[in-house]
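Data availability (excerpt). The following record was deposited with the supplementary files.
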Amino acid sequence: MKSAAQARTRWQVGLTGGIGSGKSTLARLLQSHGADLIDADAISRSTTAPAGAAIPAIAQTFGPEFITPDGALDRQRMRDHVFAQPEARHALERIVHPLVGAEIQRQAANCHSPCIVFDVPLLVESPHWRSRLDRVLVVDCSSATQVRRVQQRSGWAVETIEAVMRHQSTRLQRLRAADAVVHNDADDMAALQASAEKLAHRFGL
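Predicted structure:
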């Protein structure tokens, strides 16, 4: 007999965590259990890829020097720019966020799984997400673990990683927003897989 939680027709679950937390890995594991996955970060990257929907407005707002020869956003140049000028971040968000929001809605309308997982790096920072979600799931680890993983994965300088972290919600803010927390300080894929299996069962997958 299914529990009340399992009997729900459709779960809408927001998944978030700081850079290097393992959030995207957990998202893929939940997808492997049958969840529909909507990756807000991947959608955002697509809008700034070559010929992406955001490119014309970015070039007009920031100048053609922020566009690479192949027609994509120059991410490193923009990253340096928004760290130096916070208002530039808001200007970029005003271009990209509406495009991302529209694509998220389009993808969600085509989902059929009992659980939609919205992988949203800046979920806690946004005032719009909480009201549309049934649960907020946070993948948590220490700041030192975040830095180590991003260095290993992307080769970024510590200063760059810490700058990104400063522009995200704090660990405490994310934990306060969570309905459920997956602790992921250890690089233990088996433990993460076990967490994903429990969550899949909880959300009727």
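Summary of structural features: The chain has two domains: 10-34+115-205, 36-112.
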